[in-house]
Amino acid sequence: MAFSPYKILSLISIIFTIFTSMVSSLITTPNNNNTSTITIPLSPLLFTNNKHNNNNPPNSSLYQYQSLKLHAYASITRAHHLKHHKAKKGSSPSIIKTQVHPKSYGGYSIDLKFGTPPQTFSFVLDTGSSLVWLPCSSHYLCSKCNIDTNKISTFIPKKSSTSKLIGCKSPKCAWIFGPNVECQNCQEKKQNNCSQICPAYTVQYGLGSSRRI
Is residue 139 one of the residues assigned to a domain? Predict the structure, then answer.
């Protein structure tokens, strides 16, 4: 299946315009301070390329078209949610306030804490991605990186009393793969006590880079 590169560029342009306007309206930097405060709504990750459920090779035109279509839909849905979201009556919105740090390249970074006791890490605030990830082992590899990977902080699960592997049947695993996640060692659909961990996933960005566990 062939698709026009002009349509792709047009779609990317639309998405970029949406998020440019979103970021402009959400982020303000005080003149007398090096940090600013924004409000970030939290929601589960719903759009990820699941290598277990996709039969098309990553270099195929159909795979690239479906991937672009999926990410475009996710971006538009996120923009609509941020613009029109209203808290339901009788419920407390899952909103936090935190500081962001402006960078010389025009972006922002944000400090997040994980684990018990907390381990602090700095992340790029990327409005074009619904995934937040960080290295958690010494096997981390960064292909074609222009930074020193030895300076990248690594989360150490053994130092956290609350860290644990997520099972394949866990609702949190479905946040990544959706409700139809395939658990190869759990053939029965009603087998909730399956010991298989959540499958590895792959996420491919617009520039061709990928992240995977």
Answer: yes
**Number of structural domains, the chain?**
1
CA distances from 19 to 25, 41, 85, 102, 145 (A): 10, 15, 16, 17, 26
Burial classification of residue 114, based on how many CB atoms lie within 10 Å of its CB (0-12 exposed, 13-18 middle, 19 or more buried): middle
Instruction: Label residue 44 exposed, middle or buried (CB < 10 Å: 0-12, 13-18, 19+).
Output: exposed
| pLDDT tens-digit series, residues 3-27 | 444 444 444 444 444 444 444 444 4
Q: Are 34 and 95 in contact (CB under 8 A)?
A: no
> Residue 174 in contact with residue 192, Cβ under 8 Å?
no
In this structure, are residues 111 and 122 in contact, taking their beta carbons and an 8 Å threshold?
Answer: yes
Beta strand extents in the chain (DSSP E only):
36-41, 95-102, 108-114, 119-124, 202-204, 210-212
pLDDT (tens digit, 9 = 90+) per residue, 47-92? 444 444 445 555 667 767 767 777 777 777 777 777 776 655 555 5
Does 167 map to a domain?
A: no
Distances (CA, A) of 114 to 157, 159, 161: 10, 11, 11
Please name the residue that has the structure tokens 């962001």. Answer: 100
User: What is the distance between the alpha carbons of residues 41 and 18, in angstroms, rounded to a whole number?
Assistant: 17
